[in-house]
Design goal:
Residues 4-119 form the Gfo/Idh/MocA-like oxidoreductase N-terminal domain. By secondary structure, the protein is α/β, with parallel strands linked by helices. It has helices at 13-23, 48-54, 65-69, 86-95, 110-122, 138-149, 180-183, 188-203, 324-341, 354-373, and strands at residues 2-9, 33-41, 60-62, 76-79, 99-102, 128-130, 155-163, 206-215, 220-222, 228-230, 236-244, 250-258, 267-274, 277-282, 288-293, 301-305, 377-378. The strands form 3 sheets. It has a 9-stranded mixed β-sheet.
Length: 382
Amino acid sequence: MKTIRFGIIGCGLMGREFASAAARWCHLPEMDARPEIVAVCDANESVLDWYTDNFQTISLATGDYKQLLASDNIDAVYVAVPHNLHQQVYCDTIAAGKHLMGEKPFGIDKPANDAILAAIAQHPDVFVRCSSEFPFCPGVQRIGRMIDAGAFGRVIEFNGFFRHSSDLDPDKAINWKRMIDKNGEYGCMGDLGMHVCHIPFRAGWLPRNVRAVLSNIMTTRPDKSGKRVPCETWDNATLLCEAADGDGNLFPMTLKTQRIAPGETNSWSLEIKGTTACARFSTKNPRRLEILEYDGGEQVWGQIDTGHETAFKSITGGIFEFGFSDSILQMWAAFIHELSTGSAPSTFAACATPQETAWSHTLFTAALESQANQTVVELELT
């Protein structure tokens, strides 16, 4: 089996999730390549102990990411750092010839994203993708196959939501995701937006315009000392779009990203309505896929309990539940598979592309303009 040697830059929550997925690689019996964690980097070097305690393959633990990139012992890098650091670290990673999995939004704003895509164009031998795990849920993989087969007929409507309530507490201390200089003016759209864009973008359903309703609900939060300071990022965003399918047919698309959604822990959901079929899925009920197929008779929603039906074969029995750590493992399997073979096994068993991040930046930039001017903003996504 081919080994791909990885460094991790930014060793917080998602870095640990990747390292854990790499440790579970034997869970995927048909993979021809595997990741090996050989280097880790974080400005807070105290977090590196977890990695070095658990992974004997690590030969470099540093606070200097350029030292990591200079290592000839590294083939690929996962970067999970605050948004204001994306442009510099991503471009440096690409220039170093390291394959890159980067976190969303792939730049703090559109100029930063443009610079990252320019770096990719200058280094075509470097494989680059963006993290987005939820499409690997079994129910969504089935929906993807329905899209590929044209099962929905003409699309009537698409709704994609990512909602949680982690910021509902007004006394929760401010962190970098609530600071414009580190998170960016997109607010919740930058952090959560690719989650709701991935499926429609991959289907080729691109927004033609957007009317955004953005909300800054908690305008102050305590800092580390307990003093209340301004909290200026957007907490919630609703994007009302007119989108087009591959044939140019128009339909409404609603995309919601919400950090303050009472009753929601961390719920990602989508709904597609078409002239011949409809489908809906939510991680609130991760086994349940709802399908309505219409052929002229009664219109009846059916419920399917999906099991461990994965894009990349797993040792877990098909009757068992699929969870978040499984979706992370599947996403990384998609990255490793495409890196090592040059192709994805299917349209939706693939990671988000740099082009899809560029579309998201165009959309979110237009959403800011729409909110500021209370207008519908036209888009050209090609």
